[in-house]
Design goal:
single chain; alpha+beta; 9-stranded mixed beta sheet; 8-stranded mixed beta sheet; 9 helices; globular
């Protein structure tokens, strides 16, 4: 395969002005575009960690595999992760125990521990230079949380079989005197795009085929159309951030959130390589109760990079709290400097999209109603381990092996104990359709500055407009082609985002995140 573009800087492929550290510090991983019809055993759609891990495992098991990615390898949400490898999940283990029972909480813990081990085994066996390290992780209370919940979580982690303990102070944090934390031992971290490069090389060496700039559409039990060519397969794996093969079912079980990240250089030796998280804002209006997450990554011989994330909100709904995207970076920086005052300037800032399942566990396995179409989604803030678990489950399923985690992560599951949260998220989604009758963001296109977008009303029509830096005005229907919500302008990523199901479109109206499969319709305006 042609990898001649691998020396290009990937800032050329991002949708907005911000570039993640991973994408900035690694070359683009590109392959040929499709040029013919294809017949294979397994067609995998998505070139992030989910798709590549699944492809690698199936090739090792003897299957013929073709993988297609509509951008470049890692150019989607995998390239925007902060790459924590942890069994400390976004939702507490006492919640998992109450929701799924003690045995299933133990299975969840076991699966994430196994996923970290699986990644380490792949790194070792393929000799991937991706800075894999085993580190400790520290969970501490958000100011809105209660001390009793820390004790409750510690007890739940012990019952789940995890290696945890309690410390009376949080290692390396300032302004946190006498603040207790739970230590999760034997966690890990790595450079995600270097890991994907190693996986991609292994896939090709095992006889797998990878196509980039290859957009899959019309996904069905026989395969898909890819750049207009027919790709036929016995099994189809949709390993995209959110399933693009499903119109409604999965999009009622999970909801899209934007999360924000900053990266700042600090002199080497000032902090230990570790993972830190708070327990999340218990008073948040969002069901997901956004939390902060921090880690350290090697930068160069003199500096490490402190990577800090948080300040989440529902996609397309930043205005619901009256906090702009820019202000969220400011709040994140203020929070970070309170605990880690050593950075001078912020070197990186970026945001990513997180799919939050209502019951906290990812959806990995057979797509509801299908026998040969599989999905990996609902990764929450644990995408690196959830996707690896998904690859293990799907590989076993295709090989005819019953995986012991299969039922726990089944996309067909219904979790009655989270009905309240389901209703809250469904009500939020339904309320977004009121945008059809709301006023415009903009009265006159002449008032729109270069580099910005907005939504305006023209009679019964809603129009998304963007003025580029050459002062040319672009206009599209503001109606998301998925299920008809009105998109909102994201001034951080320079994109139009759907507040109902998280579809996103760049400033040219081109779809960059599902579940929408088609672009915004172009409109000519004067």
């Amino acid at each position: 395969m042609d990898e001649s573009n691998n020396t290009l800087k990937s800032s050329s492929i991002t949708s907005g002005e911000n570039v993640s550290f991973w994408i900035d510090s690694a070359p683009i991983i590109s392959f040929e575009k499709p040029d013919q019809d294809i017949q294979t055993e397994v067609l995998i759609i998505g070139g992030g960690i989910a798709g590549l891990t699944t492809a690698y495992k199936l090739l090792k098991a003897g299957k013929k595999v073709v993988l297609v990615e509509d951008g470049f390898i890692g150019s989607g949400e995998t390239g925007r992760t902060t790459a924590h490898l942890t069994c400390a999940l976004d939702d507490r283990y006492f919640f998992l125990e109450e929701t799924f029972g003690k045995e299933n909480a133990k299975l969840a813990a076991e699966s994430h521990v196994a996923a970290i081990d699986e990644i380490e085994n792949i790194v070792t066996s393929l000799n991937i230079d991706c800075s894999f390290k085993r580190v400790n992780g520290y969970l501490f209370l958000h100011p809105t949380d209660k001390e009793e919940n820390l004790d409750k979580e510690f007890q739940a982690t012990q019952k789940a079989g995890l290696q945890t303990s309690v410390l009376e102070e949080i290692p390396a944090l300032v302004n946190a005197e006498k603040q207790r934390c739970i230590v999760f031992n034997n966690q890990a971290q790595f450079h995600i795009l270097n890991y994907l490069k190693g996986l991609a090389d292994a896939i090709v060496s095992l006889g797998g085929i990878i196509y980039t700039e290859a957009r899959a559409e019309d996904i069905n039990k026989k395969g898909a159309k890819v750049n207009g060519f027919t790709f036929s397969a016995d099994y189809i794996v949709v390993a995209t951030n959110t399933p693009i093969n499903d119109v409604l079912t999965m999009h009622t079980k999970q909801h899209a959130y934007r999360t924000y990240v900053i990266g700042a250089k600090i002199p080497k030796g000032q902090l230990p390589y570790s993972l830190w998280w708070d327990t999340g804002d218990q008073e948040s209006k969002w069901v997901s109760q956004p939390y902060h997450y921090v880690r350290l990554e090697n930068y160069d011989d003199e500096y490490d990079l402190l990577i800090s994330g948080g300040e989440d909100h529902k996609t397309g709904q930043a205005d619901e709290e009256g906090i702009s995207e820019f202000e969220r970076y400011e709040r994140l920086e203020a929070w970070t400097r309170n605990y880690f005052p050593m950075p001078d300037d912020i070197s990186y800032r970026w945001s990513g999209q997180v799919m939050e399942p209502v019951d906290s566990l990812g959806f990995m396995g057979k797509n509801p109603g299908d026998d040969n179409i599989y999905i990996i989604t609902g990764d929450s803030g644990n995408g690196m381990t959830h996707t690896t678990i998904g690859a293990m489950i799907i590989c076993d399923s295709i090989m005819g092996i019953k995986n012991k985690w299969e039922d726990l992560y089944s996309p067909s599951r219904i979790t009655l104990k989270t009905t309240g949260d389901f209703i809250k998220e469904a009500s939020n989604m339904a309320s977004q359709y009121l945008d059809w009758i709301k006023g415009s963001d903009l009265k006159n296109t002449a008032d729109l500055p270069a580099g910005e977008g907005a939504v305006l009303s023209s009679g019964l029509n809603k129009i998304a407009v963007y003025r580029d830096y050459d002062n040319a005005l672009k206009a599209f229907s503001a109606v998301c082609p998925h299920l008809g919500c009105i998109v909102q302008w994201n001034n951080d990523e320079k994109s139009f985002d759907c507040p109902c199901h998280g579809s996103r479109f760049d400033a040219e109206g081109i779809v960059i995140n599902g579940p929408a499969e088609t672009d915004l319709s172009k409109i000519h305006i004067k």
